[in-house]
Amino acid sequence: MVSWLQILPLQKKLFLIGKMFxxxxxxxATGLANLIEKKxxxxxxxxxxAIFQTETIDPLINAIPQRHFELAKEQLDTNLSGPFYxxxxxxxxxxxxxxxxxxxxxxxxHRKNIAKYTDTLTQRCLDAGLVIFGxxxxxxFGLTVTTEPILHGPTRNxxxxxxxxxxxxxxxxxxxxxxxxxxxxxxxxxxxxxxPASCCGLVGLKPTRARTPRGPGVFEGWAGQSxxxxxxxxxxxxxxxxxxxxxxxxxxxxYAPHQENSFVSTLENKIGxxxxxxxxxxxxxxxxxxxxxxxxxxxxxxxxxxxxxxxxINLPYEEMMxxxxxxxxxxxxxxxxxxxxxxxxxxxxxxxxxxxxxxxxNGREVMTKDYIQAVKTNHKIGYEVExxxxxxxxxxxxxxxxxxxxxxxxDLNTTxxxxxxxxxxxxxxxxxxxxxxxxxxxxxPLHRSSKNLPIGSMFTASFGNESLLFGLSKQLEEAExxxxxxxxxxxxxxx
Length: 495
Fold this sequence. Notes:
The chain is globular. The strands form 3 sheets. It has an 8-stranded mixed sheet, sandwiched between helices. Strands 1-3-2 form a 3-stranded mixed sheet. The protein starts with a helix and ends with a helix. The chain has a single domain, classed as Alpha-Beta Complex (Amidase signature (AS) enzymes), CATH 3.90.1300. It is of the alpha+beta class. The chain has 17 helices and 13 strands. The protein is 40% helix and 13% strand. It has helices at 4-7, 10-16, 29-37, 43-61, 69-76, 120-127, 170-178, 194-200, 235-245, 288-303, 317-343, 354-364, 368-387, 417-427, 432-437, 466-479, 483-492; strands spanning 66-67, 88-92, 131-136, 156-157, 160-164, 183-188, 203-206, 227-232, 275-279, 307-311, 394-398, 441-448, 454-460.
């Protein structure tokens, strides 16, 4: 049966968006929860709206390949509670385990991978009252900075459908930017929260190493480099979600520093004059548009009374790149080998994309001593980054060296591995440093390019100091509000 939505012209469809609850997109997740608390709308009505938005908008952007509508309706029949009571939510189709649902990891190899349990982080989201109705698109195993898996196809950027939404949390970012939901779960092992946040004009915080849990089952991603949180349209949503999901779990190999007060309360902290180091490695040329955005960001910071200085960090770049390659490739080889054994299959490019296969091959060749050295290098990077905070409060850099790339420009299925690596590093040279060091780092959508594509500014604080990032981010959100630009983009989506 063909639905009436399918046969309507696109412009008519877009006109109808939000007619069930026309103000839906005016609210962040906290705002929607407040409406429910005041009984101005019900959780069922919000879920119906999120499903309506999904069925109407997602054909344009391809952000939500896994849909759990009926399961979400069952969640409404449970005793939901918590600060996000009744708010629709999406998990990333990578690592996240919701019992009885598929987590494909964006791979044909895992297309039938049904979760046998609900992981700790997902359960904390449910306990906070979030209603999980699907999973968002991810590149295969989260290995790249765009979201274009063979399994589900490319996710498109709502700001310009010819461009990538970023990766690996590209589906999450596209869904939030387009207005399907105001906040979605995301993960970051080398920039995978901050990159799509930058591409799609959102707030994207990578928390301190081990701030949020990864278990049970897998407690540590990429030697502690990977961590989960969210992309959102507001700073306060990011802070509140961290409040309800942060904290070690039984078996955690790392513990983030204790946070005395709630992260939400830190939004009210008075931000004095901060010393900010602007760091741009000299080994990567910046696109002129990115340079202009960073100048605007620096001017904004100085207008608010902060002091910005050009600085460098003493980091061994070649050693860093080798470290990333060793840790990720060996991790992938271990993961793929386990699946190969479990499923009793011979893995080739009918099941895995070519770069994944190459990383499996490279990982099998990693020596034990090389892996140990790589972990030591990460600790050294953490030390060098932390030393910067003796003299500075915050570090500033671009998220990306260029505006969002076009669909197809960075291809995980290429056979030219060297070309792939070169394109990757020319595009995303900044974010991975803080995965290696473990420091909290956030992308803010302060400005856009001349073609109205978002370009994020990245702020990094000392280890464990998300509070300072939230306080500064709130100040910048008030000084340079980005919500109006997002609303305008949503109106023009699909034209």
